[in-house]
Specification:
Layout (H helix, E strand, L loop, with lengths): L1 H11 L5 E7 L20 E5 L5 H7 L4 E3 L19 E5 L3 E4 L5 E5 L5 E5 L18 E8 L3 E6 L6 H8 L17 E6 L5 E6 L14 H9 L1 E8 L4 H11 L8 E5 L7 H13 L1 H4 L18 E3 L8 H30 L26
Parallel strand pairs: 1-3, 2-4, 9-11, 9-12, 12-13, 13-14
Antiparallel strand pairs: 1-8, 2-7, 5-6, 5-8, 10-11
Bound molecules: guanosine-5'-triphosphate (GTP) and magnesium ion.
């Protein structure tokens, strides 16, 4: 059994990032023509966000994925106005976009306890409808997770992204010496001594032409969009091609904080490659002649840290975990301070700002390179 579940995990990955559901409001109750009685309204279907819920849990718990509001009570001699049918409340994760069948966004659930009405119950039968009740709304809706992980692994096939996830977390993605071993995102949790966790998404390899949908192309890039920070994994000098691919797809992606990991430091010649890479990062224009004109990144991406590692010997792994944590904590503090500032503005207090937004990467002339 354990073996079987492991096979399923391997094949399908552990992430459910979207779910399609059938929702229907309850039908209204029958009216009572003889006494002019009105049937009860059908129950509505609501999505309510809760922190502890995941899409995977919904999928496992409700394999039928059908959610229907209660039927309104018929009008009777004892109760001329029939009782309303019960509302159905489905608990969904925080950070969800809900779209209908034709792709129109119905709403977003961004904070614990947010509620969204997705299917209204039908009206009870009454004088106006010749005492015939109406049916509830019927819809297929789609739930999409807005953010799949704190950190997304970006790198060419075979760079060692899945190997890295295996050594920093308990996840066990498939590892093999051929391209495109990973076809779906796999999420691993990195644990820290203070019990804080950060989530890291192992993504399919990125190849040249991904912005034109080559390889896993757009599927890959969509996942990258839904992570807070990027961790580039290279085993040579290929980072600039990847930067260019992201840039060609959506320039905004490069405004995410990024770190660089140089993997396979156990292999012969790795130290020499690392030194060259450092020079390239410090003076990218000196190396631009090595790339075709259309593959030279226009944005000078400044990595917050550059960490040499080996997933085989374990060297540099603890450093990397520290850097990831620091980088996420830094941004979390920035967001909290910004929110705090906004709230004070709301009540008419204007604090002197203690932080300035980071200048855009394109505007930075010197890369903020720090080798650890
Ligand atoms: N020598 C050495 N080999 C490594 C290291 N890390 C990974 N590898 C090997 O590199 C190969 C590819 O590793 P994966 O982790 O599957 O690479 P990936 O980036 O996930 O590849 P895709 O899923 O195809 O994109 C495997 O044969 C690994 O054993 C390392 O630090 N040193
Ligand atoms: Mg992989």
């Amino acid at each position: 059994m354990v073996h079987l579940s492991r096979i399923c995990y391997r094949k399908y990955g552990n992430l459910v990032d979207n779910l399609r559901l059938y929702v229907r409001g309850g039908s209204g109750g029958m009216g009572l023509p003889r006494l002019g009685g009105q049937g009860g309204k059908g129950g509505d279907v609501w999505m309510v966000s809760k922190k502890e819920v995941t899409l995977k849990r919904i999928k496992d718990k409700y394999p039928h994925k059908r959610f229907i509001g209660g039927v309104g009570a018929n009008s009777s001699v004892q109760a001329l106005k029939g009782e309303k049918g019960g509302d159905y409340e489905l608990h969904v994760p925080v950070g969800i976009t809900v779209t209908n069948d034709i792709g129109r966004v119905m709403g977003e659930l961004n904070a614990e306890g947010d509620r969204l009405l997705v299917a209204k119950g039908g009206q009870g039968g009454s004088f106006h409808s010749a005492f015939t009740p109406s049916k509830g709304q019927t819809k297929h809706i789609r739930l999409d997770l807005k953010l799949i992980a704190d950190v997304g692994l970006v790198g060419f096939p075979n760079a060692g992204k899945s190997s890295l996830l295996t050594v920093i977390s308990h996840a066990s993605p498939q590892i093999a010496n051929y391209a495109f071993t990973t076809l779906r995102p796999e999420i691993g949790k990195v644990m820290y001594e203070d019990h804080k966790q950060i989530s890291v998404a192992d993504l399919p390899g990125l190849i040249e032409g991904a912005h034109l949908n080559k390889g896993m192309g757009h599927k890959f890039l969509k996942h990258v969009e839904r992570t807070k920070q990027l961790l580039f994994v290279v085993s040579g000098y290929e980072y600039s091609n990847q930067v260019r691919e992201l840039e060609l797809y959506k320039e905004d992606l490069l405004s995410k904080p990024a770190l660089l990991v140089v993997n396979k430091m156990d292999l012969p010649g790795a130290q020499h490659r690392l030194e060259e890479l450092q020079q390239q990062l410090q003076n990218p224009e000196e190396f631009s002649h090595l790339l075709p004109e259309d593959m030279i990144p226009r944005t000078n991406l400044a990595f917050r840290d550059v960490v040499p590692i080996s997933t085989v010997t374990g060297s540099g792994i603890d450093q990397l975990k520290r850097c990831l944590r620091q980088s996420l904590d830094k941004d979390a503090a920035r967001v909290t301070e910004a929110l705090h500032g906004d709230r004070l503005h709301g009540v008419g207090i204007f604090p002197v700002p203690k932080w300035r937004p980071e200048p855009s990467r394109a505007a930075q002339s010197e890369p903020d390179l720090q080798l650890v």
